[in-house]
Amino acid sequence: MQQLLNGIFIGSIYALFAIGFTLVFGILDRLNLAHPAVFAASAFVGIELVERGGLSLWAALPLVFVVGGVLGLLIERLAFRPLKGRADAHFAGLISSIALAGMLIALLQWRYGPDTRRFPPGSFPDTRFEVFGAQVTLVQVVILAVSLALMVGLTYMVTRTRLGRGMRAVAENPTAARVLGVDVDRVTAVTFAISSALGAVAGVLFAINVNTAQLGMGAAIELKGLAVIIVGGMGSLPGALIGGLLLGLAEVFAVQYIGSSWIDVIAFGLLFVILLLRPQGLLGARKVREV
Amino acid sequence: MLAQYATTLTFIALGAIFAYSFYAVLIAGQLSLGQAGFAALSAFAGAYLAPSPADVGDVPSLLIAVAIGMSVGALAAVVLGLPTMHLRGVFLAIATLGFAEAVRVVLTNQEWTGGAQGLGVPRVLTVGMAWLALGLVAYWFWRMGRSRYGRALAAIREDELAARAMGIDVGRHRLAAFVTAGAVAGLYGVLYAYYVRLIAPDDFDFTAAVEGLVTAVVGGSTMFLGPLLGSGFQTIVPEIQRAVGVEAGWIRPFLASLLLLVVILFLPGGLASLLPRRTRMPGTTGDQAGKRAGRTHPAAGETVVSLAGLGKEYGGVHAVRDVDLEVRAGEVVGLIGPNGAGKTTLVNMISGLVPPSTGTATVLGAAIGRTPVHRIAAAGVSRTFQHAKLFNRLSALENVLVGAHLVSRPTFLRRLLWLPSARRDERAALLQAAGCLERVGLADQAATRAEALSYGDQRRLEIARALASDPSLLILDEPAAGMNHVEAQRLSELITSLARDGLTILFIEHNVGMVLRTCTRVVVLNFGEVIASGAPGEIASDPAVIEAYLGSADEDPAGGSIAEGTLDDPASAERADTPPDAVANVRPGAAGDLEPPDTTPRNAT
């Protein structure tokens, strides 16, 4: 039971991270490899807000959300918009976002140094609950609640609001969307901002969960994020949620029953099988290219 | 002097070789990150299995290890490639990345690899050997570039569907490129192992794979020198920073990333795009080798196309219904009908791009529906597309050379050995391609990239490309769309002259006047069914045809003969007078959907 809950907590963070990933891919058809750098950066920023700014953990979260959004706008402007209309935009976008991620990590190193950082002692309330005989901290409950709330909010926005309609229109056909009066550039920028804001919150939550932030934490979750969005189905938001939870659970149980050194084989074995059997992912729809 | 830079130079060579393993698939438009896995398998297998340098000497030991490593890499690529070659774009990248990560974890958990501690390997590789190996790899890709095989890979990168229609077996070519990548990655793995003294599975992780990809793309993935330039750039930038005294820490990676961003944003073709590129034109001097007998064509009057009850249904909508049609060699058949009548769908079925739902069809002896597109092309069918599908980043001449794929001989292996016969074959192909360009009046545009041509010229280039395969049946899908009257007139003359040469032509056109002037027979489709078929004169006065085009006579007294040929766009004829079962009209764009259902979203390359 304890393992199950732990799996759900870590899985919800994976899901939140992956949803940011898959949002950009699903709507704009671009893989943003600077996403993991935002994840790492926000963890450091979150720690600084708590440590120096003296904010409580909960007050820091919305601020980190905003910081993530700003980073997203920067990523779009610097790494993706200049490539618009280029035949190799797909490859080039991968590389330019990798370059931007490198710059971001270098800046983090400048500001915070290469060492692992932690939240100051006493940042976490010690409230604990007992659920079905398993220990659960208030922090973990908040992680789950925040992740779920953001995912529900995002789903509502994409399916119900005017902006979300614009996003779906752009995903379907950018040219037609433009003709019909959708401001494609604005929708693109907003998509990046939301995606990065979600990744940023995921980063802080992850740092809270393990109480550490490292420069390499983004790279470590990057592969998992990719696995999750493939398993769930590229561009599918509920797919990313399910994929994230699956991965979190699989990892926790793999550590317990098989040994920690084999974790990644589980994730990638699953990934590989899914790609072969159902390339569009569990919940992804097949997209047919137009001629 | 050299000794001082030996380490840097060796790493440039090693980085370049690894980048070539990415280049090997990028030129075919595939994004793979599995090379790190191939390199890891090869490095450990080579280092573990090859005899020690103490027993057999340095060079033999290294050579044996290289042989083992390249075989292991190639074999792994076959094993991984067979199930994954149907994946495209990011999906292939992530699947191969999953493979590489799995390899890394498995190797880490093995006893014989030393696990995370790594495996000690004697240092045998010298800077000279590294550059010799790099030279051989670069030579391979240099000679490949202008061979038939190299052009076929470039064509697949630019437009897979058009490449298929030109008779290129895409699956085999993609797998071949992948296996090449595996072998080159294997070479890198072994050389790396014999240089760094200690290899660990983590040397071949995700970061390493991304670095290899970045190196290849920065250098330029369409020119054989690209990976070398990229590796030089990636290795030398930190060295220069150190030399000029930039402190270690965050500034170096920051500047390196910034430079990478600048290169990728402002040099679309990578560093290699800074190099001048010469375009080759066959000299007009020398013997005009004359027409090479490409293939044997059916004699005039023999059946070329035979359709029986052919139909195509898209989710309950009948795009084409129960079409019987026979086309004989030497005929020029015009296919007309209002928009959405099913013309393009019919032609797509005949050229094998779309499998029929019902009925049977034989085209030049090939059974439609069971024969892959490239086989149908090999049988002698060549076509153009409604929306020009050219190989955009190739020159006009190269486009036509790809068109000649089926009638030219493979030259790559002979080009590696500089055999004169390869030179002769290439020259013959060039002359033939130049001849096709001249025939459509594009000889002076041979060196222009296809994407830079005007719309009308692109249409004509497509015809030249289709002609290059010396087809028995030429299918043109709206060749005159977007052409003015003068251009359309010239096109009509071209078609007539092709027919005089004995070519069978089937073409879709909205310019009815042109069709009536050019064709020996006209077939009219409406709502997926043949409503009339016959000589141009009969068709022009057929009441059913006039009704389909202009509405029924009593409603529209102006609807006289359509033979004046002024009717360019019959789309306006589809109006309120469509029959109640108008559902049969295909959904917009359905006819144009040619892509096989693959998993790649739009724009994926």
TrEMBL record, chain A:
<feature type="transmembrane region" description="Helical">
    <location>
        <begin position="226"/>
        <end position="249"/>
    </location>
</feature>
<keyword id="KW-0029">Amino-acid transport</keyword>
<dbReference type="InterPro" id="IPR052157">
    <property type="entry name" value="BCAA_transport_permease"/>
</dbReference>
<dbReference type="InterPro" id="IPR001851">
    <property type="entry name" value="ABC_transp_permease"/>
</dbReference>
<dbReference type="GO" id="GO:0006865">
    <property type="term" value="P:amino acid transport"/>
</dbReference>
<keyword id="KW-1003">Cell membrane</keyword>
<protein>
    <submittedName>
        <fullName>Branched-chain amino acid ABC transporter permease</fullName>
    </submittedName>
</protein>
<feature type="transmembrane region" description="Helical">
    <location>
        <begin position="91"/>
        <end position="112"/>
    </location>
</feature>
<keyword id="KW-0813">Transport</keyword>
<keyword id="KW-0472">Membrane</keyword>
<feature type="transmembrane region" description="Helical">
    <location>
        <begin position="255"/>
        <end position="277"/>
    </location>
</feature>
<dbReference type="GO" id="GO:0005886">
    <property type="term" value="C:plasma membrane"/>
</dbReference>
<comment type="similarity">
    <text>Belongs to the binding-protein-dependent transport system permease family. LivHM subfamily.</text>
</comment>
<keyword id="KW-1133">Transmembrane helix</keyword>
<dbReference type="Pfam" id="PF02653">
    <property type="entry name" value="BPD_transp_2"/>
</dbReference>
<feature type="transmembrane region" description="Helical">
    <location>
        <begin position="57"/>
        <end position="79"/>
    </location>
</feature>
<feature type="transmembrane region" description="Helical">
    <location>
        <begin position="7"/>
        <end position="28"/>
    </location>
</feature>
<keyword id="KW-0812">Transmembrane</keyword>
<dbReference type="GO" id="GO:0022857">
    <property type="term" value="F:transmembrane transporter activity"/>
</dbReference>
<feature type="transmembrane region" description="Helical">
    <location>
        <begin position="132"/>
        <end position="158"/>
    </location>
</feature>
From TrEMBL, chain B:
<feature type="domain" description="ABC transporter">
    <location>
        <begin position="305"/>
        <end position="552"/>
    </location>
</feature>
<dbReference type="GO" id="GO:0016887">
    <property type="term" value="F:ATP hydrolysis activity"/>
</dbReference>
<dbReference type="Pfam" id="PF02653">
    <property type="entry name" value="BPD_transp_2"/>
</dbReference>
<dbReference type="Pfam" id="PF00005">
    <property type="entry name" value="ABC_tran"/>
</dbReference>
<feature type="transmembrane region" description="Helical">
    <location>
        <begin position="6"/>
        <end position="26"/>
    </location>
</feature>
<dbReference type="InterPro" id="IPR003439">
    <property type="entry name" value="ABC_transporter-like_ATP-bd"/>
</dbReference>
<feature type="region of interest" description="Disordered">
    <location>
        <begin position="556"/>
        <end position="605"/>
    </location>
</feature>
<dbReference type="InterPro" id="IPR032823">
    <property type="entry name" value="BCA_ABC_TP_C"/>
</dbReference>
<keyword id="KW-0472">Membrane</keyword>
<feature type="transmembrane region" description="Helical">
    <location>
        <begin position="89"/>
        <end position="107"/>
    </location>
</feature>
<dbReference type="Pfam" id="PF12399">
    <property type="entry name" value="BCA_ABC_TP_C"/>
</dbReference>
<feature type="transmembrane region" description="Helical">
    <location>
        <begin position="254"/>
        <end position="275"/>
    </location>
</feature>
<protein>
    <submittedName>
        <fullName>Branched-chain amino acid ABC transporter ATP-binding protein/permease</fullName>
    </submittedName>
</protein>
<keyword id="KW-0812">Transmembrane</keyword>
<feature type="transmembrane region" description="Helical">
    <location>
        <begin position="119"/>
        <end position="142"/>
    </location>
</feature>
<feature type="transmembrane region" description="Helical">
    <location>
        <begin position="33"/>
        <end position="50"/>
    </location>
</feature>
<dbReference type="InterPro" id="IPR043428">
    <property type="entry name" value="LivM-like"/>
</dbReference>
<keyword id="KW-0067">ATP-binding</keyword>
<dbReference type="InterPro" id="IPR051120">
    <property type="entry name" value="ABC_AA/LPS_Transport"/>
</dbReference>
<keyword id="KW-0813">Transport</keyword>
<feature type="transmembrane region" description="Helical">
    <location>
        <begin position="62"/>
        <end position="82"/>
    </location>
</feature>
<dbReference type="InterPro" id="IPR017871">
    <property type="entry name" value="ABC_transporter-like_CS"/>
</dbReference>
